[in-house]
Specification:
By secondary structure, this protein is of the alpha/beta class. The protein is built from 16 helices and 18 strands. Strands 8-7-6-3-2-1-10-9 form an eight-stranded parallel sheet. It has a six-stranded antiparallel sheet with strand order 11-12-13-17-15-16, with helices on one face. Helix 9 links the parallel strand 6 and strand 7. Helix 11 packs antiparallel against helix 14. The protein binds 2-acetamido-2-deoxy-beta-D-glucopyranose (7 copies).
């Protein structure tokens, strides 16, 4: 894409009221919110917020609107909020209250627990005033019940003929996955018959109206693979906005099948999530081959990797910190989700080191963190700033990454003028082997590590040495001529130049100091030479 086109699409995206396309979303960075758990309105009284008991905690749309600075200050350019439609309103179910928003009753109504139509419009307006996008989660596949014989008059589709008859899902049978009822006998999720032409037509009208009424810019589609694939193109066309589907599956081929003109614009990148866990979690298999394998397969199989949703956490999987205790593992894996291809999606609370395991423990109220400016928050801010800067000034959003080298403890990849060097050694030191690869830059090029604010000069034969003297921190290099990003000082001046090309410079950022501040007792000296 030419710079003028980049400029044009940015202008278009900042002035758009709704109907943002995949091209526009590709440039964005998403912060995912559980509406009930993100923020309380000032002065709100919290009666009960017991995570293990799946109670309401009291968050709503107004509270999100009043706390958008926290998200925007970290450089995010979109929010994804919980489903906005009416949920089950009966007595507490076997699995608690529908605080998460996924237990749809009448989808033609809003969820009054989260606010009024005016409140949702006010949130949408404020998001747009800030130049950000609004993504809304939608549940199309099913409604919720507390019985296998629901009273259908409570739903938008008011007759049994609009639903598939009850059967328990057999996950080895695709038809069963798409027609039987998710959930269990205590909380069954009656499966809407999306083959029915009245259902198709009513859902089309409903989504078109919802998107227009609240100026929604994009949809996250719950349980997308539980609806037959050929339902989606017409639905997405009626929505008229970017659609990102949930296809909960670690296998690239299975997930890739749901992206494209015969399905959806985008899917959440579960295969990448699994590969990053395998490669970076500590303790873990430290299996860098799993990431290399993912990269190879994804290049061949996905229709467009640049619009996939890259995440490390969400409401359905354990917090990263529950699975991996070393903070360097998070910093390195997070850097991959921002600087490789795809749209970064950060689940609220990742930046606060929340550590609950799977549902319901991974849905902590964010206010318990005091919205602290943590090291992870600062790292995301830096990564968002660099990513948006590259997208603003080059065709970076559509460029594909290229692996320069990898070994069992690290990977170096280039995307445009950004080279990321990531490692899974974690905080303690380990002996590592060197790897060699072709440099994208000529000898003498001065590069800046935008995380550590250190300078690296490319030596003869393209050699650059990255020393892990304080543990396995991610290193992200850009040529120092790429000025104006505001990272490490706008002009990049004032940094020392190494007298010996290839040596790092002692000066470093406060962020780097914070990143290596844990756990000091485990730190040993280590040096890893990355040849390029
Ligand atoms: C798959 O599931 C469908 C729907 O429940 C069922 O009709 C069909 O018999 C199943 N096929 C097999 C091979 O079990
Ligand atoms: C590492 O990942 C590769 C590629 O996915 C896989 O074949 C291999 O079995 C994995 N090794 C371990 C130890 O998990
Ligand atoms: C994982 O989550 C569970 C439940 O929230 C908790 O008991 C456990 O301590 C967590 N583990 C870690 C390593 O944080
Ligand atoms: C948040 O602030 C409260 C009140 O000052 C304090 O008791 C609590 O420890 C703080 N929590 C965190 C995670 O900073
Ligand atoms: C977080 O702290 C860093 C380092 O002190 C600072 O540069 C940044 O502005 C802070 N961010 C916010 C939102 O306060
Ligand atoms: C990217 O461009 C937008 C729109 O011109 C601008 O508001 C934003 O500050 C730029 N961000 C960076 C990091 O360059
Ligand atoms: C690294 O390797 C050297 C030589 O094999 C050995 O002497 C040293 O103890 C090793 N250090 C660590 C931290 O494993």
């Amino acid at each position: 894409m030419l710079p003028s086109l980049v400029f044009f699409s940015l202008l278009a995206s900042f002035s758009a009221v709704f109907a943002a396309t995949a091209e526009q979303w590709r440039t964005r960075s998403i912060y995912q919110i559980i509406t009930d758990r993100y923020a309380l309105e000032p002065g709100a009284v919290v009666n009960e917020c017991v995570i293990s008991q799946q109670t309401w905690c009291g968050g709503n749309w107004n509270a999100i609107r009043k706390r958008l600075d926290y998200i925007q200050d970290a450089g995010f350019t979109a929010i994804w909020i919980s489903p906005v439609n009416q949920n089950y309103q009966g007595p507490r179910s076997a699995y608690g209250d529908p605080y998460h928003g996924y237990w749809i009753a009448d989808i033609s109504q809003l969820n009054e627990k989260f606010g009024t139509a005016e409140d949702l419009k006010a949130l949408s307006d404020e998001v747009h005033r800030r130049g950000m996008y609004l993504m809304v989660d939608v549940v199309i596949n099913n409604v919720m019940s507390t019985s296998l014989t629901p009273d259908y008059s409570k739903y938008m589709f008011k007759d049994a003929k609009y639903y598939h008859p009850y059967c328990a899902v057999d996950f080895s049978n695709t038809t069963s996955e798409q027609q039987c009822w998710l959930g269990d006998k205590q909380v069954p999720l009656p499966d809407v018959n999306t083959e029915n032409s009245e259902v198709k037509s009513k859902y089309s009208d409903w989504i078109s109206d919802l998107v227009k009424t609240y100026s929604i810019d994009g949809l996250r589609i719950d349980a997308a693979k539980h609806v037959r694939k050929d339902f989606w193109p017409a639905f997405a066309k009626s929505a008229g906005v970017f659609c990102m589907g949930e296809v909960f599956d670690p296998v690239v081929a299975n997930v890739a099948d749901w992206q494209g003109p015969d399905a959806l614009d985008s899917v959440l990148n579960y295969p990448l999530y699994n590969a990053l866990l395998a490669a970076f979690a500590l303790p873990g298999p430290q299996n860098m081959s799993a990431l290399m394998d993912y990269i190879e397969q994804s290049k061949k199989t996905f229709k467009d990797t640049t619009v996939l949703g890259n995440f490390l956490e969400n409401q359905d999987v354990a917090r990263w910190h529950n699975l991996s205790v070393d903070p360097q593992s998070l910093y390195n894996a997070m850097t991959y989700t921002f600087l490789s291809d795809g749209v970064p999606v950060v689940y609220y609370g990742l930046e606060q080191g929340f550590s609950g395991n799977a549902d319901p423990y991974n849905r902590e109220p964010l206010w318990s963190s005091n919205y602290t400016n943590t090291t992870s928050y600062q790292l995301m801010t830096t990564l968002n700033k660099l990513r948006t800067f590259m997208i603003n000034t080059t065709d970076w959003a559509t460029q594909k990454p290229n692996v320069l080298a990898s070994n069992k403890n690290g990977i170096a990849f280039q995307k445009g003028e950004v080279v990321s060097i990531l490692t899974n050694i974690g905080s303690p030191a380990q002996n590592l082997t060197n790897i060699a690869f072709q440099s994208p830059w000529p000898q003498g090029t001065v590069t800046i590590d935008v995380i550590g604010c250190r300078q690296f000069v490319v030596a003869s034969a393209g050699y650059v040495e990255v020393e892990y003297t304080k543990g396995g921190v991610p290193v992200v290099l850009i040529p120092s001529t790429l000025q104006g990003s505001g990272l490490c000082g706008t002009t990049m001046e004032g940094l020392h130049t190494g007298t010996v090309p290839g040596q790092t410079v002692a000066q470093s950022s406060a962020l780097l100091s914070a990143m290596v501040a844990w756990p000091l007792s485990l730190l040993l000296m280590v040096s890893l030479g990355w040849r390029w």
